[in-house]
Design a protein that fits this description.
Arc Repressor Mutant, subunit A; 6 strands; 35% helix; elongated; Helix-turn-helix domain-containing protein
């Protein structure tokens, strides 16, 4: 991307549109994408794409250079088709920044402009400051047009880029205490979505979105219905017994009118061991399950770790009556202490015992951190010899235990062998 597009007079949306057109123009036929297709890829409205194309195709006021050229086409029968758009050939001596086309789809236009500025500064070895970024991300419309963006807004944009995984920040590690930025070609951790700052309403042909709704009201001269007929206080009816709400037939039930469910690939990879249970859940339960898995992945837990947890618990559970309740309340829940790397009392990366969990057990009086094991914990009173008992944890079982181990205490290999 030429540097003049990043720091020039072009709007933030023009930077995103230029990035996508430059990527699609690498084909032999050029960029044949229409306005609707570009708007769907970038997540912005069609009117915003049209304004950005108008800016890019017109000569700039400072150097009379147009970045995008559009060629209209007509089919042999006389029917028009989408135009072919090509970007200007950039010279080898011209400064520019390398921006992956995936960033244009994952980031908002203003975040993409900040990412391009950081990419150029990192490539040239310039220790960029918040004031420099503020001059690049200046206001381009309104009363503050031409003024730099305030440092508070710049910090918010940088925090969003860091949270999405496109940059890494080493704070106070650069020249004279400046931050050092590392720009990634792909996000370090995939994100479900990004804030587009483009409104939530539909495209109304370059019109303004409604911000206030005027509800229908009756004439002030007409009294409310049945208002004059009520002269005394109504007798309050209180239900004395249990009330049963019969379920409505399918013809009278309100269908689900929410957004269509779409999960990220990283969520599907984690849910692969329990995909037979997920297929029968409602969209609400699946969405809650996906949010919980995404939250744990954002904390730093590996997808293989969550997948192994689900696989172990689905194999160690004999009867699952309510799949949604079991997945949310038992399967996906992490057991252990407050350390992110702790998995049921052991460090996931190394397999060693967690010292924090050992200290907590020692503080509770269950097991000392060192020395011979103490007496076994007391069990529930039951007739002797009635129920088999696990040799490892001492839990009673109503079914006989061939190897004297319950299902949670068995290793995964034995569970797989018993289920075959």
């Amino acid at each position: 991307m030429p540097l003049r597009v990043v720091v020039g007079f072009y709007s933030d949306a023009a930077v995103s549109v230029y990035t996508k057109i430059a990527a699609l123009e690498r084909r032999e036929t050029g960029c044949e994408a229409g306005v609707t297709y570009l708007a769907a890829l970038l997540g912005i409205s069609q009117s915003t794409v049209e304004r950005a194309l108008t800016q890019l195709m017109r000569p700039a006021p400072d150097d009379d250079i147009a970045e995008v050229t559009s060629y209209r086409r007509t089919l042999p029968g006389g029917t028009g088709t989408t135009a072919v758009r090509r970007v200007r050939v950039v010279g080898r001596a011209e400064h520019g920044a390398w921006v992956p086309t995936r960033a244009a789809e994952a980031l908002s236009p203003r975040q993409l402009r900040a990412y391009a500025a950081l990419s150029y500064a990192t490539a040239t070895g310039h220790h960029i400051t918040l004031a420099d970024l503020g001059r690049v991300l200046r206001h381009r419309s309104g009363k503050k047009a031409g003024e730099p963006l305030d440092p508070r807004s710049i910090r918010r944009i940088l925090r969003a880029l860091e949270a999405l995984g496109w940059i890494s920040v080493d704070r106070r590690a650069g020249y004279r205490g400046r931050h050092l930025y590392t720009v990634h070609d792909e996000p370090v951790q995939a994100a479900l979505t990004a804030d587009l700052d483009d409104g939530s309403g539909a495209d109304l042909g370059d019109g303004s979105l409604a911000s206030k709704e005027h509800h229908l009201t009756d004439s002030p001269d007409d009294p409310p219905p049945d208002a004059s007929a009520i002269r005394r206080r109504r007798e309050q009816v209180v239900a004395r017994g249990a009330v049963e709400n019969p379920s409505l037939p399918p013809a009278f039930r309100r269908p689900y009118a929410g957004p269509q469910l779409a999960l990220a690939p990283r969520i599907w990879r984690v849910l692969e061991p329990v995909k037979a249970l997920v297929s029968g859940l409602s969209p609400y339960v699946v969405r809650r399950l996906a949010r919980e898995i995404g939250r744990q992945l954002d904390e730093g837990q590996e997808p293989e770790r969550l997948r192994a947890r689900l696989e172990f618990r689905v194999l160690s559970t004999q009867d699952i009556r309510d799949p949604g309740r079991w997945l949310l309340g038992a399967a996906v829940v992490r057991h252990g202490c407050g350390l992110v790397d702790c998995e049921s009392g052991r460090i996931w990366r190394t397999g060693a015992a967690c010292e924090v969990c050992a200290d907590l057990r020692a503080a509770d009086g269950h097991r000392p951190p060192s020395g011979p094991p103490g007496p076994r914990r007391p069990t529930y009173p039951r007739p002797p010899g009635r129920w088999p008992e696990c040799q490892s944890c001492g839990a009673p079982s109503r079914q006989p235990l061939p190897d004297r181990l319950c299902r949670p205490c068995r290793p995964p290999a034995d569970l797989l062998r018993s289920l075959r």
